[in-house]
Amino acid sequence: MKKLARLFALVLAMMMILSCSALAEDTSLADIKARGRLVLGLDAAFPPMGFMNDDGDIVGYDIDLAKEVCTRMGVELVCQPIEWSAKDMELSSGNIDCIWNGMTATEERQQTYSCSINYLQNAQVLVVLADSNITTLADLSGKTIALQSGSAAAEAVAANEEFSASLAGAPVEYGDYAMALMDLDNKGVDAVAMDVIVANYYITAKNANYRVLEEQLAPEFYAIGFRKADVTLTEEVNKLLKEMAADGTIAKISTQWFGSDISIVPAQ
Amino acid sequence: MQYLNDPERLMKLLTQLTHGFGTTLSIFAMTLIISLPLGMIVALGRMSRHKLISAPVSFYILIMRGTPLMLQLFAVYFFLPRLIGPIPRLNAVYIAFGLNYAAYFAEIYRGGIMSIPPGQYEAAQVLGFTRSQTFMRIILPQTVKRVLLPVSNEVITLVKDTSLATAIAVSEMFLTAKNMTSSSGSVEPLFIAGVFYLLMNAVVTAFFNFLTNRFNYYHD
Fold first, then answer.
1. Which of A11, A84, A143, A233 has the greatest count of CB atoms below 10 A from its CB?
2. Residue A177 shares a structural domain with residue A241
3. Would residue A203 count as lying in a domain?
4. Which of A65, A38, A49 lies closest to A245 in space, CA to CA?
5. Residue A225 falls within a domain, yes or no?
6. Which of B87, B75, B92, B85 is CA-nearest to residue B34?
7. Does A111 share its domain with A143?
8. Helix (H, G, I), strand (E, B) or coil at A102
9. Residues of A in Cβ contact (< 8 Å) with B171
10. Which residues of B touch A (CB under 8 A)?
């Protein structure tokens, strides 16, 4: 009985601590600085934003940006690969401090996370084989498409009811783009819905035999997702990104990955 | 072909996969270290005559065998920390795999123990063996040889199940191969990873063949 009472007291105490921390003021930025490191969560299968190179190192546009932000913040950057569909759990359980991986700032995600300023323009597009005769969204009527599960492309397809109703069935969902594109190669599907940034990377850097449809599903932006309560951290990262835009650092990183400066971070 | 016709790139890939394979091996070994003995305790609990013991143990087995291992991984990694504080990724995998496989091993052990004819218990009683002596000296040794083949099935499955650890992003071999596939747009890394699993299972199979021969006495 005594043990039970003790257990009960412990549970109560824990609940109090948890509720207190929810009410306490936002110390996210101070916490990161005290800890001396920022843990960046990414799906390491998303070139050119964040991916694993031949040597097993995690590289990419987002990683270079984050490294520079961390240097200016005086902390170390730790890249933690995560499973994309488990990103919310990783963030809320505190295993990672932010999702910084070509994350589309959808309306839903802006509700769930504390989002940074938009730093890159992206669009959800459809990719077909280069020799395919499909040129418009209407041409895909009665055809099948593939996409990454839990992706912004999945949301964009679902949001465009007219388009999704015209398809032969529900989209085929893969865990990552490489698989979806392989299905396209094999003509298992007629098109893949994905981010134009990633599609262009595969087409130019990998010499892949694809074509992007000019008609887009949805224009959108990339942003960094922090925990909803971590506002001071979000603001600090925003400030540093603007500084980096002003002194030309971002332009340099963008040219290195995309061949030109496509960043949309304002200098002020 | 991006890797097989480029020796330098292939070597880099093999280095990365071998690195991941170390994690795969440690998941494999730790799961067996936890689940093989734990399975015995669970099997004995399941066979207990006391309802207070056997009922909860049955429920444990039902949960472990009745829900996806991937879900159990999520539960251990994302929800257990709310009660006991943070758990490193790899430890969460050890716990989830260990608990899951213990349930399967328990039922295999139970099957083995129950397959021993009741006549042997009666004979042991007549000879004046105590209950624990009967179990340790007569029943258990015979059980070992009977459960060997079903256990080998589970162990081979475990080799391949280690790839489920990707669900909580443990960088074992399969995740490395998947990431390499994404960055290169070629399936070769996945197939080469497949060769690693195959070789490992060839070793496991050979080991169990050796054990089966070793225990191949007293045909009944």
1. A233
2. no
3. yes
4. A65
5. yes
6. B92
7. no
8. strand
9. 81
10. 9, 12-13, 15-16, 19, 74, 78, 81-82, 86, 166-169, 171, 175-176, 178-185, 187
Tell me if A137 sits within 8 A of A215, measured CB to CB: yes
Pairing of strands A37-42, A58-59: unpaired
Q: Test B179 with A51 for CB contact under 8 angstroms.
A: yes
- Residue A226 sits in the same domain as residue A201: no
Domain assignment of residue A164, given as a range:
122-220
Inter-chain contacts counted by CB atoms under 8 A, chains A and B: 71
Query: How close does chain B come to A116, measured CA to CA in Å?
Result: 25
Average pLDDT over every residue of B44-53: 95
Predicted confidence (pLDDT) per residue in A62-96, tens digit: 999 999 999 999 999 999 999 888 899 999 989 99
Quote the radius of gyration of chain B (alpha carbons, Å). 21
List pLDDT tens digits, range B68-107: 999 999 999 988 888 888 888 999 999 999 999 999 999 9
Residues 147-166 of chain A whose Cβ lies under 8 A from any Cβ of chain B: none
Asked whether residue A40 is domain-assigned, the answer is: yes
Q: Are residues A81 and A205 in the same domain?
A: no
Q: Of the ranges B34-43, B137-146, B177-186, which one carries the lowest mean pLDDT score?
A: B177-186
If you measure CA to CA, which chain A residue comes closest to B166?
A83
User: Which CATH number covers residue A159?
Assistant: 3.40.190.10
Considering the domain architecture, whether residues A61 and A133 belong to the same structural domain is answered as: no
Q: pLDDT band at residue A20, thresholds of 50, 70 and 90?
A: very low
Domains within chain B, CATH numbers bracketed: 12-214 (1.10.3720.10)
Residues 6+ apart with CB under 8 A from A109: A103, A115, A225
pLDDT at B169: 85
- 8-state DSSP, A263: B
Q: How far is B16 from chain A (nearest CA, A)?
A: 6
Picking from B9, B166, B183, the nearest residue to A52 by CB comes out as: B183
Asked if B175 lies within 8 A of A181 by C-beta distance, the reply is no
Give yes or no: residues A143 and A174 share one domain.
Answer: yes
Which string of DSSP letters, residue by residue, matches B22-72? HHHHHHHHHHHHHHHHHHHHHHHHHT-S-HHHHHHHHHHHHHHHHS-HHHH
Measured in angstroms, the CA of B209 and the nearest CA of chain A are apart by 37
Are A137 and A170 part of one and the same domain? Answer: yes
Residue of A nearest to B73 (CA): A86
Residue-level pLDDT at A70: 97
In terms of domains, do A185 and A110 share one? no
Overall number of domains in chain A: 2
Question: Is pLDDT at A228 greater than 50 in this prediction?
Answer: yes
Q: What is residue B135's predicted lDDT score, i.e. its pLDDT?
A: 92
Residue B188's CB is within 10 A of a number of other CB atoms, namely: 18
Q: What is the pTM of this model?
A: 0.81
Does residue A267 fall inside a structural domain? no
